[in-house]
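Illustration 12: Putative hydrolase YxeP.
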Amino acid sequence: MDQTTLDKIMALRKELHTSAEPSGEERKTKEILERFLRENTTLRLADKGKWFFAAHEEGDFLPNIAFRADMDALTLPSGEASHLCGHDGHSATLAGLGLLLEGKTLGKNIFLLFQHAEETGLGGADCRPFIMENKIDEIYAYHNIPGWPEGSVLLRPGTFACSSRGMTVRFEGRPSHAAYPEAGINPAFAAAALIAALPGLLTSEQYRGMVLSTLVGAEIGSKSFGTAAGKAEVYLTLRAWHEEDLDKLQSTIESISRQAAERDGAEVSFAFCEEFPETVNDESCLCKVADACAKLGLKTEAPPEPFRWSEDFGHYLKDAKGAMYGIGDGTEYPQLHTEDFSFNDRIIATAVGVFEALVRQK
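Figure caption equivalent — predicted structure in token form:
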């Protein structure tokens, strides 16, 4: 890749960075990317509303290989959006691959998928039909990862990123005058019983791998000193290396909650959000990434465990073979989702290079 092309990709990344939009609202981001591809390539663009894909097509009955990037930014407490996870870099990198496809005969069809709403887990689920509709044989993606040597490629067999979901446990009691608490049903004690039980749920032999139940918040009653609480909610993030373990953990929490509610005469219900599947790499596809890195002379690393964060790329891997890998931002680079983070432009050449090497593989 020549310097002019690299400069063009970096300029696109900076434009995306200044146009950050939250999950599900990536209108300007999508327009910028579509305009860039229209002006610089002859790829066919397929607009799907909140997301789109670009296609380099050489004919029927050829392998269909896809590459995916996410477009959304994080929503800050202020309500503004900011690219604190690197999705601006992912999208610029994928658009950069589009530049390198021009005029090439590859013996395959290449699809570039630009996905919305990764941070909430909704985008991958929305885009999942893309795999079957376009008969995708393989799909690839990467994530930039701080804490690892800059430009190194992180290859993890099996589970690359955890499954997770947000869980709300709602206890419904009956409020009463604070002077007569015995006349009501205060759900605070059921909520407290659940919270107290959480640390003991993580070491059971029933799990194949790591599980986590992280308490992220709770609400009990209100600051009204004349009224005993009648409602309580507990907010949890459940996380596991394997989806089957996540389901077991959820079932255990539901059972504990029901027992605590029944003991006190309260009602309990459950709600879920931001659900992410496990991201499990196909062995043959990961080997192709390793071969691409070898041809480029890139250093590779083998993370000893799955990354604890989640990625909705796992949705695609339920319908097609594929792999997700990491590219190191640097051992001292600011962590993802922090105010000091910004995508490291020095890894763009590596990221585009691996994509191109995968495209060229026979």
